[in-house]
Amino acid sequence: MNPLAATNRYFKQAVRILGVDSKVERSLMIPFREIKVECTIPADNGTLLSFIGFRVQHDNARGPMKGGIRYHPQVDPDEVNALAQLMTWKTAIAHLPYGGAKGGIGCNPNELSASELERLTRVFTQKIHDLIGVQTDVPAPDMGTNAQTMAWILDEYSKFHGHSPAVVTGKPLDLGGSLGREAATGRGVVYATEALLKDHGKIIADQSFVIQGFGNVGSWTATILHEQGGKVIAISDANGAVKNTDGIDVPRLVDYAKKTGGVKGFDGGEDIDPKSILAERCDVLIPAAIGGVLTRENANGVQAKFVVEAANHPTDPDADEILAKKGVVVLPDVYANAGGVTVSYFEWVQVKHTSGK
């Protein structure tokens, strides 16, 4: 299902349940501002590369708009709109004084050199610098971006507005970043999982876990679950999947993936088809990769008792209904993965206090 259609369907269901006024509903269906820019850069080989960048600012009623910037081939207006809307709900649920925003560039960062990524980030910042700001819209890392990306944005933005370390979060520590920000989303997923299990009389150490995705969120989630005694029995990434019913040695797998670029071929388990990861038998399934992975077509195959949405909108509304009929408890993304924006708030407040802007 189209991500924006799915998000709007959830929103309309919530509106009916809460009895929200129709005027407010219409207002919240339409984003505050949509930005689409062309970003052309010289490639390392002398040719020109062109990309489309987006920034959607959904709502600023509660404070400056907040949301990540992702670099991924699937970035498009509908996805960015949906993610911006989800950030509005996420920051409200976490009681943070923010509104929602999201941005991205349709590119494959793995196919670009570090210098090309820097040029692309700086050109994108040049196109949107007058529409973001410390009290307006504060970007952060997301899929395909990291602390270095935020450092480039901060530097380029500061050329126009003076040194403004609070204009982005998820920065390197030397530029005013926050300790723990890199692990924050994954740690928040674990805290949310712990609270969910407690409500059902269970603890992490007694549960088995399957994780789809081994990027920042998936790897930190797996690492912290392992530290707390949880048995992580299967993990997948974009190119492979590994399974060990006795429990994967997660620290070893993290080291292996850093050296080889993925989980495929890890000798601490057997390789399985990554397409089967969502149907593996376990207590807790954690989709931590891209959106829209649980659908009407595969939801009946889910064998987990709990689904914790570490990714953004991983479950389509049709799949949600199927899982509910099966008795599977789904912990929504707007709660489960709010750890990242929570620590981003700490960073934003701290650097504003120390720098004045």
Automatic annotation (TrEMBL):
**Domain Glutamate/phenylalanine/leucine/valine/L-tryptophan dehydrogenase C-terminal residues, every copy:** 178-356
Q: Which GO terms describe its biological process?
A: L-glutamate catabolic process
Catalytic activity line of the entry: L-glutamate + NADP(+) + H2O = 2-oxoglutarate + NH4(+) + NADPH + H(+); L-glutamate + NAD(+) + H2O = 2-oxoglutarate + NH4(+) + NADH + H(+)
GO cellular-component terms in the record? mitochondrion
- Keyword list, A-Z: NAD, Nucleotide-binding, Oxidoreductase
Active-site residues, record numbering mapped to chain: K102
InterPro entries hit by this protein: Aminoacid_DH-like_N_sf, Glu/Leu/Phe/Val/Trp_DH, Glu/Leu/Phe/Val/Trp_DH_C, Glu/Leu/Phe/Val/Trp_DH_dimer, Glu/Leu/Phe/Val_DH_AS, Glu_DH, NAD(P)-bd_dom_sf, NAD_bind_Glu_DH
Q: Which residues form a coiled coil?
A: none
Q: Where does substrate bind?
A: K66, K90, S344
Site (Important for catalysis) residue list: D142
Molecular-function GO term, any one: nucleotide binding
Q: Where are the transmembrane segments?
A: none
Query: What family name appears in the similarity comment?
Result: Belongs to the Glu/Leu/Phe/Val dehydrogenases family.
The protein in question is named: Glutamate dehydrogenase
Q: Tell me what organism the protein belongs to.
A: Ceratopteris richardii (Triangle waterfern)
Lineage per the UniProt record: Eukaryota, Viridiplantae, Streptophyta, Embryophyta, Tracheophyta
